[in-house]
Amino acid sequence: MQLLTVDDARELAELYLAAEWPRRWRHVQAVAARAGELQPVVGEGGELLVVAAWLHDIGYSSRLLDTGFHPVDGARRLQRIGAGFRLCCLVANHSGAAIEAGLRGLHAEQEDFPDEDSLLRDALWTCDMTTSPEGEPVTFAERLTEIRERYGEHHSVAQAITAAAPEIERAIGHVSRHAGAGCDCVQDPVSTELRAGRSGSR
Description:
The chain is an all-alpha fold. The chain has a single domain, classed as Hypothetical protein af1432, CATH 1.10.3210. It is 62% helix and 0% strand. The chain is built from eleven helices and no strands. Helix 2 packs antiparallel against helix 3 and helix 3 crosses helix 5.
């Protein structure tokens, strides 16, 4: 098993994303920065949080194309290079990915990487889901609206994020409670109206 450092993760993410996916690269840099802010909240797993934040979207790279589903493709690449299994699972399951895997008929592939229920996992989801594609801090309500508008309400990505919204909201709330009122890196969770899909969709 190869334990990747934060520097290793940053270099890998830049290798796979910076040239091919510059907008995605800006998002990843901001997600990693937010993860760094949450390191003290997570405690012992803080460095793994930052590593996972750098690597969560590497599966978008055309060089890693396998299933066509970026969480699983990224996790498989990390598994092939001998990265820690927990890291692979965090990447494979980030931000409710298991729901979209089911919609894509990739349930079996996703099951190779079990999800966990932990503050670290919730912190990763929080960093991703409160950062815009351009790397700006947003609320989850704003992020949910942007995803629905970008993909259209009938796309599997929009359907999956809508279905995952309650669990993502729970994750953000979990992190917010641990972070305390003084931490501005955690945005307010999605509103009930948005979660029900009555606003923000085309």
